[in-house]
Design a protein that fits this description.
The chain is an alpha/beta fold. 43% of the residues lie in helices and 12% in strands. A 6-stranded parallel beta sheet has the order 8-7-9-10-12-11, with helices on both faces. The chain has a 5-stranded parallel beta sheet with strand order 1-2-3-5-4, with helices on both faces.
Length: 662
């Protein structure tokens, strides 16, 4: 085929894709048209000529990753997936409809070929950084013959304005992730108008300042796109960004460079005129000629041969027992129990002290355990882990500790990317109050069912002297509102071990492990139930004879307060204490078990927790008593703060007696 003919066929295929994008969004009467048209030239060239994938298996492990951080450009991605054959024209016709494989923003669990659920801008940039980290570590562990691929990320002006993206870019440059390649579709258009209304940042300088290899090109020049991708692939020390200067709604008849095309379908007459301009039949809708597919898929034979060579190499490597064991740990369902000694009853142990020995032993058994702290290693008790596995950086690609610095949100987005890539298990650590900074990443993590673990220490007002700025009050209940998220608040050190183990055993949901700064008593499990009961989410910690008249529900460090209060109340009433370290697990238990734990409707239901009380009606009912903190905290030693807010046994007893008498 001559060069001229190849160019003509490519341009025709791109024009057909533009027609599909316009029809897809118009048919749904909802979506984004302008951005997909401005990003299409790069994306088509990338998918057709550079992206490594298995046409027969979108989940092939050594595929290149492509993250569409600008998730509103989903019609672009769905069109490319239709060209591959993973989606059908009927899927495009169901764009943004209930139950379809083409939702408004890409969702990884719904659509083959979607690597990450994106839409909230900026997070996809962090996801791509995490994927590049995972590829790098796994390549060091298993070798280039079975792990050797690039991570590409398409982002726009909106993505780069989000601080989470800039934080992730800084991390990627600091770590020298040379197999990470960004395409920045700089079309100077946002929903509200031109980007220049709100931003005058020189992003070339920003990227360069963070240690990236930067190229600027005409984002519609196919040869420039090809050359830029090749140069980015040849860069061996830095991550790369290709800043493509593009035109919003490029190719449209009259609406080129119009920011109003960003978040809306094109008018029917504009679509018809544009198709005529592109030499397409305006009377045809969702038209995908067979010759376009034939040309796009012309490289599939070579792609399949690459996959077969990879499978052969892997098969040969799996004959080695050590390699096979580690590969199955990384990509199979194997998980080893961590042998941690039990903590002695009667001692006082801050539950955060459990994390260090647990994660260190886990890292020794599992070479795929990775994670890091947001600049709080001593406080989060992750220093030992960091010393054991080493920091991941330019000089140490085998390091498994991530020194994230003060970047909670980027940490969350990068950790999500690591989990999305597969092969590594990952945790992040910070103070619980800073879960606010990470929350958008936690939400997308739960939405995607990613088994990322968060260790949050300093879990309550018992932080003490640091005061209300650092005392989480509303955070516990706020995290419980996120679907598909385990929120674990163990009541002592031995229960904390079980919580940590359980968190890492999850396959399809993330978990938060909330740990205390202050020492709390280790329960005598000869008297109280086994800490393994935590796996049920809630259990009777201490019961009475017959049906209880008062049932006290507590979590974490407040369980011992509930037990002390119960001993005083039991002189007059029959009292049961229920420990509910994980609402989500408890609510999943059989109904008869839950009823047996919660007690009869006739009993006064009381909640006790060092946080806001809103939400405890879930267990205490309309007439229950909820004891907690419905204000911000105070700056004082933890014990004084507890007395001030009435979280002592004496105060709890008085409140319950007053409630009963009234």
């Amino acid at each position: 085929m001559s060069t001229a003919v190849a160019v003509e066929i490519d341009q025709y295929a791109i024009n057909v894709a533009k027609g599909l994008i316009m029809d897809t969004v118009r048919n749904a009467d909802s979506g984004h048209t302008g951005g997909p048209l401005s990003s299409l030239d790069f994306t088509y060239i990338l998918y057709k000529e550079f992206l490594k994938f298995d046409p027969d298996d979108p989940n092939w492990k050594d595929r290149d990753r492509f993250v569409l951080s600008a998730g509103h450009e989903s019609a672009l991605l769905y069109t490319m997936l239709t060209y591959i054959g993973w989606l059908e024209i009927d899927d495009l016709k169901q764009f943004r409809q209930l139950g379809s494989r083409t939702p408004g923003h890409p969702e990884r669990h719904l659509t083959p070929g979607v690597e990450a659920t994106t839409g909230p801008l900026g997070q996809g940039v962090g996801n791509a950084v995490g994927m590049a980290v995972a590829e790098c570590i796994l390549q060091q562990q298993f070798g280039e013959d079975v792990v050797n691929h690039y991570t590409y990320c398409l982002h726009g002006d909106g993505d780069i304005q989000e601080p989470v993206a800039q934080g992730a870019i800084a991390i990627a440059g600091h770590w020298g992730l040379n197999k990470l390649i960004h395409f920045y579709d700089a079309n100077n258009a946002q929903i509200s108008g031109k980007v220049t209304r709100s931003d005058s940042t020189d992003y070339r300088k920003l990227y360069e300042a963070h240690g990236w290899h930067v190229q600027e090109i005409d984002g519609h020049d196919h040869d420039a796109i090809r050359d830029a991708i090749r140069q980015a692939q040849m860069e061996i020390e830095k991550p790369s960004v290709i800043i493509g200067h593009t035109i919003m709604a490029q190719g449209c008849a009259t609406m080129e460079d119009d920011h109003n095309t960003h978040g809306a379908p094109l008018p029917p007459d504009e679509i018809a005129s544009t198709k005529e301009k592109l030499e397409l039949d305006p009377a045809l809708f969702f038209n995908l000629p067979e010759e376009v597919l034939t040309e796009f898929r012309s490289g599939f034979t070579y792609a399949r041969s690459e996959v077969e060579a990879w499978k052969s190499a892997l098969s040969s490597r799996l004959e080695d027992e050590s390699f096979s064991k580690n590969w199955n740990l990384a990509f199979g369902d194997d998980f080893l129990q961590v042998p941690i000694p039990q903590y002695e009853a009667g001692t006082k142990v801050a539950t955060r002290k459990v994390w260090g020995p647990f994660i260190e032993k886990l890292a020794e058994l599992h070479p795929t355990i990775t994670g890091g702290s947001a600049d709080l290693e001593p406080s989060n008790v992750t220093t030992g882990f960091a010393n054991l596995v080493g920091d991941f950086n330019k000089e140490n690609r085998r390091g498994r500790n991530f020194a994230y610095g003060v970047r909670e949100f980027p940490m969350g987005a990068v950790n999500n990317g690591i989990a999305l890539h597969g092969g590594l298990e990952v945790f992040g650590a910070t103070f619980f109050v800073f879960s606010d900074y990470e929350r958008p990443a936690i939400r997308l993590r739960a939405l995607q069912g990613l088994p990322v673990v968060s260790e949050y220490t300093h879990d309550s007002i018992f932080v003490g002297e640091d005061g209300p700025t650092h005392q989480p009050v509303e955070h516990l209940m706020a995290c419980r509102t996120i679907p598909n998220l385990l929120v674990l608040r163990p009541a002592d050190a031995n229960e904390a071990i079980v919580a940590c183990q359980l968190a890492f055993e999850q396959k399809n949901r993330p978990a938060l492990v909330l740990l205390t700064r202050q020492g709390i008593p280790v329960f005598d499990r000869n008297i109280y139930p086994s800490p393994e009961e935590l796996k049920k989410g809630g259990y009777i910690m201490q019961d009475c004879e017959g049906n209880p008249e008062v049932v006290i529900f507590a979590t974490g460090s407040e369980v011992w307060v509930a037990l002390e209060a119960a001993s005083k109340l039991s002189v007059k009433w029959k009292v049961r204490v229920v420990n509910i370290p994980c609402w989500e697990l408890f609510d999943e238990q059989p109904e008869d078990y839950r009823i047996s734990v919660l007690g009869p409707d006739s009993a006064l239901k009381v909640s006790l927790e060092a946080g806001i009380t809103l939400g405890w009606e879930h267990y205490t009912g309309i007439g229950g008593l909820n004891i907690g903190i419905d204000s911000f905290g105070e700056s004082a030693p933890g014990g004084e703060v507890a007395r001030h807010f009435g979280l002592t046994a004496e105060s709890v007893v008085n409140k319950i007696q007053k409630h009963i008498n009234s």
